[in-house]
Specification:
This protein is of the alpha+beta class and 118 residues long. The chain has a single domain, classed as Transcriptional coactivator/pterin dehydratase (Gyrase A, domain 2). It is built from three helices and four strands, in the order H-E-E-H-E-E-H. A four-stranded antiparallel β-sheet has the order 1-2-4-3, with helices on one face. Strand 3 and strand 4 form a beta hairpin. The protein is globular, with a radius of gyration of 14 Å.
């Protein structure tokens, strides 16, 4: 299995500063496997924004993301603004950049069924 195939089937691994951030080539390869995610200008964070159906739907999605984060021990920054604009940011703070773990969690978040604003 390649390192990016079936990312949602992988488990996050600890990287307490001993791991180096992914190279720009690796980031681009992983990014192709998590549709809807964008990379920031410094290539240190990926983000995805949803415009949810309503506030309750957005909070339910946040709760599902929290379960994924807890089970993977890799926690995104979650922003809920304007009662239904939900943005998720992923970065591996311990290494100051992106790791495979960010893309694993992004792939798992992509599998959450979401109700978007019509």
């Amino acid at each position: 299995m390649s390192k990016v195939s079936s990312l949602s089937q992988h488990k996050c691994e600890p990287c307490e500063g001993t791991t180096q951030p992914l190279s720009s080539t690796e980031v681009e390869e992983f990014l192709r496997n998590v549709p809807g995610w964008q990379i920031d200008e410094q290539a240190k964070m990926i983000s995805r924004t949803y415009f949810m159906k309503d506030f309750v739907t957005a909070v339910n999605c946040v709760n599902q993301i929290a379960k994924i984060a807890a089970s993977e021990n890799h926690h995104p920054d979650i922003h809920l603004e304007g009662y239904r604009r939900l943005r998720i940011d992923l970065s591996t703070h311990a290494i100051g950049g992106l790791s495979k773990n960010d893309f694993i969690v992004a792939a798992k978040i992509n599998e959450i069924p979401v109700e978007l604003k019509e």
